[in-house]
Design goal:
30% helix; single chain; 11 strands; 337 residues; globular
Length: 337
């Protein structure tokens, strides 16, 4: 099931610039996600009036679409290729100026399309993964609760046979090597170095499913023009303030305006890393490079000997503010003497 929002004005000689918008897991083109927007609303109110031909659709096994759910696998990728062809051949759309935006599940497919050489001219994945093994089976430990929660977004009868079997294994925390191999096949991080498509990564600082490191690691690897925004949106427990999405919508459109329309708006020359305050407000902070890791040392007060329960409790002085982005490394030194 698909829909296209087209500009009211006549198309230019080469055709309109185009965008494909991809929704999240368990959603459809007409239901809002954590951004409080639907892909249909984004197309109708924010993009088509600015001269974009926009395609939205229900992913397979979602909404009005048929087929089986295979977690952004080859079938979902083929669907996206076919829709891109339909958009650029059945409509006055310039095939050299089509971009894609996707959130969460949709963002995973946008990145998969990029590493598989789907010819997008610019992309913007939001609140998504680059390494599903790291996200769902870190250090070989299955995050069964998160997997179960996500799995309930799609009716069980709409799962592919491999996915249904591995889901049962994941909930039972068994057959971990097979689960890791499957999730690795749906991950893009090792191949992102080959991606030269202009990529705007948007990720949340408090996303329990896909943390900031998913996008930070991608930013380090991408070879083409790139931008990274870290904010207060995403999966729980993110705050998802509506004002942040109003701001992000303008930044997304500026990205696509520059790389799909050729608008000289300066977004390509701005400091490429942007971090929003918490709680969200303007102005944000910008950086030319990823901030370097800092080493913090704490003196621990408290008991030096084992308690009756066999524990040693040590407490730092009160820390005014401490926030980490990406995976922190903690070293603990102790002696039995």
């Amino acid at each position: 099931a698909r829909i296209m929002a087209a500009p009211r004005a006549a198309s230019p000689a080469a055709g309109w610039p185009g965008l494909i918008l991809l929704h999240g897991l368990g959603q459809r083109r007409s239901t809002p996600d954590f951004s409080h927007w639907t892909t249909n609303r984004m197309a109708r109110e924010f993009l088509a009036p600015e001269g974009y031909a926009v395609l939205t659709y229900d992913a397979r096994a979602h909404g009005e679409s048929e087929g089986l759910f295979t977690l952004d696998g080859p079938r979902e990728l083929d669907d996206l290729r076919e829709l891109l062809t339909w958009l650029t051949t059945a409509h006055p759309v310039d095939p050299s100026r089509v971009g894609a935006y996707g959130a969460s599940y949709g963002g995973g497919l946008v990145l998969r399309a990029a590493v598989e050489s789907v010819p997008f001219a610019a992309i913007a994945p939001a609140a998504t993964w680059t390494d599903l093994v790291e996200a769902l089976v870190p250090q070989g430990l299955v995050r069964a609760g998160i997997i179960l929660g996500f799995s309930q977004s799609v009716a069980r009868e709409r799962y592919g046979p491999d996915e249904a079997r591995l889901l049962e294994d994941a909930i039972a925390e068994r057959n971990i090597p097979a689960i890791r191999a499957y999730l690795a096949s749906r991950s893009t991080r090792p191949r992102l170095g080959s991606v030269r498509i202009p990529t705007f990564l948007l990720q949340g600082r408090r996303d329990f499913a896909f943390d900031a490191d998913q996008a930070i690691a991608a930013y380090r690897r991408l070879s083409g023009p790139k931008r990274l925004y870290l904010g207060n949106f995403g999966h729980a427990p993110a705050a998802n303030p509506s004002a942040e999405f109003e701001y992000l919508a303008t930044q997304l459109r500026a990205w696509f305006d520059h790389f799909l329309k050729g608008v000289a708006n300066g977004i390509d020359r701005r400091a490429p890393i942007e971090i929003a305050p918490d709680p969200w407000r303007l102005p944000t902070r910008s950086f030319r490079t990823l901030p370097k890791p800092r080493t913090l040392t704490f003196k621990l007060g408290g008991r030096r000997t084992l308690s009756a329960q066999g524990k040693v409790a040590r407490t730092t002085a009160r820390v005014r503010h401490l926030e980490t982005f990406g995976t922190p490394v903690v070293r603990v030194m102790f002696s039995t003497r």
